Amino acid sequence: MSTLMAPRTTTTPSALARTGRAEWSRVWSVRSSWILALLTAAAVVGLGTLVGLDAAGDPSGPPPDATAWDGARPSAMFALFGILALSVVTSTADHATGAIVPTLQWTPRRGVLLAARVGVVVGVATLLGLALVAAASGVVWAFVPVVGLPPGAGAGTLGGLAVVYACCSLLAVGLGLALRSTAGALVTVIALVLVLPPLLANLPYDWAVDLSALMPGSNALYLIFGEGPRDDMTATSSRLTLTAWALTALAAGGWRLLRTDASR
Amino acid sequence: MISVQGLTKRYGDVRAVDDLTFDVEPGKVTGFLGPNGAGKSTTMRMMMGLDRPTAGTATISGRRYVDLSPPLREVGALLDAGAVHPGRTGRAHLRIGARTNGIPLWRVEEVIDQVGLGSAAGRRVKGYSLGMRQRLGIAGALLGDPRVLLFDEPVNGLDLDGVRWIRALLRGFADEGRTVLVSSHLMSEMQLVADRVVVIGRGRLIADADIDEVLQGLGGRRVRVRSPRAADLHRALTDRPGGPGRPEVERTGSGEPDVSGLGATEVGDLAHALGLPVHHLADVEQSLEDAYLTLTRDSVEHHGHGEQPVVNGARR
Fold it and tell me: Which residues of chain A make contact with B86, given a CB cutoff of 8 A?
């Protein structure tokens, strides 16, 4: 046994830092992550281009108080799709491929693994979404310079989107860890965010509309577009509802990772 | 040293591992044997903290695996060669393992060379053969240059060179004083490499003994003899004065006596004293496969009768 390889102990913070670096490598060492990121980038920036072209060709011109950040709202919605997909794929890859075996051999302290995985995946997905929305806003501004790209409005827009993206990514990661199936988690998160909210909101029942207002998708859309299935929705109530969904999913996923056998 | 104490794993009403107790000592290669579904993999998974025991403990160097930090510097394990992300390169896979345990990246290149993965390390794992995946898994186990090694079916998919390489590797580790536990279905391979065997059946311990003890349990020495007067020799061996050492003589398909309980020297002396010509006389090496089949067959009987017999000093 070489001297360099002699066993030594590791503190929790350094184990967390190492596991975080390893999680970063896990995300970017597979092609599927790059493909998802590039497809999302193409869709988000492409939609920003279409919005910019449309606004540039509109003879009535933009509303007086509009900014390029407003023009990127449809792009922000598309970015959410990519964030959900990236979060699900990266959080379920270990169980889907059996790689959870070496992962837990290398990091047997599951709390450390959970913290590192959630932190890296949610962080990467959120920052990617924000960067793409900023890029889409820049494209809109390039086509319609008159609307401007004020930094103050940008900070507000990106700050609000950061909460939406982080909560939705956390929801997806939590479901991925809980269900341990890429297809299962993807179907569930798409149903909760994209399918059920408009479906319920369009049913002729008050309870269905009320239920729709509680779905994560309705609250994400409210925070992006300012519109929701109920008139009494506010930014604060939407943030709280989204956070509750995210924390519930994290609790379910965390319980599954921390308390149950690795592959059952 | 690995210590398993009262380890139990239940899935509903099924006891996959049932009150298992044994130690794996350093400086020896210990074979971990048992029929399919005996609980070997579940036991190894519990040792590695992948599955939670219903009861009992498994410790490595006195600590649970989950308490080892960083673990790869203490324990290396290959549990499932197929458990790798197919879209990642072998090198990237190993680098992730190295990063989690604070192992320098040059060590990754070292183990890639050590297992003979070579240029394949830069390819995605989905293009690997089973043998290459085994080598990648072994490289992962060696990353931290650990004192304890666990291998689940390490020679699966390896060609003859690979088998001989892993045999030498295991022997070398044991000779360096490391603790080596190897699960395998290949009894001939285990007989060549193991110093000791732990045999389990239906989740319970059947035998925990040195390999020589297990082989002795088959009835000691056996001799095969060929003679043109096989019938006379057979009669002479059968009519040999009785007592505790009385041999058992069976006729093989060609009519030649197969003698248990006597050595080649005694059979040769007897034939010489009677003036019987002998054309071939040889000790027959006992096989671990025979011992294993006998032990596991008894295990089934044991479960049917609920007894706890002792064979060759080993608990069943």
Answer: 97
Contacts of A14 in chain B (CB under 8 A): 102
State the CB neighbour count (10 A cutoff) for residue A199: 13
Give the DSSP letter string of chain B.
-EEEEEEEEEETTEEEEEEEEEEE-TTSEEEEE--TTSSHHHHHHHHTTSS--SEEEEEETTB-GGG-SSGGGTEEEES-TT-S-TTSBHHHHHHHHHHHTT--THHHHHHHHHHT-GGGGGSBGGG--HHHHHHHHHHHHHTT--SEEEEESTTTT--HHHHHHHHHHHHHHHHTT-EEEEE-S-HHHHHHH-SEEEEEETTEEEEEEEHHHHHHTTTS-EEEEE-TTHHHHHHHHHTS--STTPPEEEE-TTS-EEEES--HHHHHHHHHHHT---SEEEEPPP-HHHHHHHHHHHHHHHHHHT---EETTEE-
d(CA B316, CA B307): 9
User: Cβ of A97 under 8 Å from any chain B Cβ?
Assistant: yes
Contact call for residues A136 and A48 (beta carbons, < 8 A): yes
Tokens for A161, please give them: 């989107």
Q: pLDDT of B276-294, one tens digit each?
A: 899 888 887 777 887 787 7
CB within 8 Å of chain B, chain A residues 106-135: 106-109
To the nearest whole Å, the CA of B316 is away from the closest chain A CA by 28
Provide CB contacts within 8 A for A70, sequence distance 6+. A147, A157
**ipTM for the complex shown:** 0.89
Res. B305: pLDDT tops 60? no
Q: What DSSP designation does A262 have? A: T
Other C-beta atoms lying within 10 Å of the C-beta of residue B63 = 12
Distance between A88 CA and the closest CA of chain B, angstroms: 15
Which pTM value belongs to this model? Answer: 0.85
- In chain A (264 residues long), the average pLDDT of successive 10-residue segments reads 52 88 95 96 96 90 87 94 96 94 96 97 98 96 92 94 98 97 96 95 95 96 93 95 98 96 76
State whether A1 and B52 contact (CB < 8 Å).
no
Beta bridge partners of B197: B31, B209
Q: Would you state the pLDDT for residue A2?
A: 47
Q: Is some CB atom of chain B closer than 8 A to the CB atom of A36?
A: no
Closest in B68, B99, B176 to A25, CB measured: B99
Six-digit token pair at B46?
């519990």
Query: Of A248-262, B8-22, B154-168, B219-233, where does mean pLDDT reach its minimum?
Result: B219-233
- The nearest CA of chain B is from the CA of A166 a distance in Å of 25
Comparing CB atoms, the residue among B49, B83, B88 nearest residue A98 is B83
**Tokens standing for A199?**
């479906």
pLDDT band at residue B261, thresholds of 50, 70 and 90?
confident
pLDDT at res. A216: 97
Please list every residue in chain B whose beta carbon sits closer than 8 Å to the beta carbon of residue A261: 45, 50-52
Our measurement of the distance from residue A73's CA atom to the centroid of its chain's CA atoms, rounded to an integer in Å, reads 15
- For residues A95 and B74, the answer to whether their CB atoms sit within 8 Å is no
When scoring B14, B47, B85, B88 by the number of chain A Cβ atoms within 10 A, the one with the most, hence best to mutate, is B85
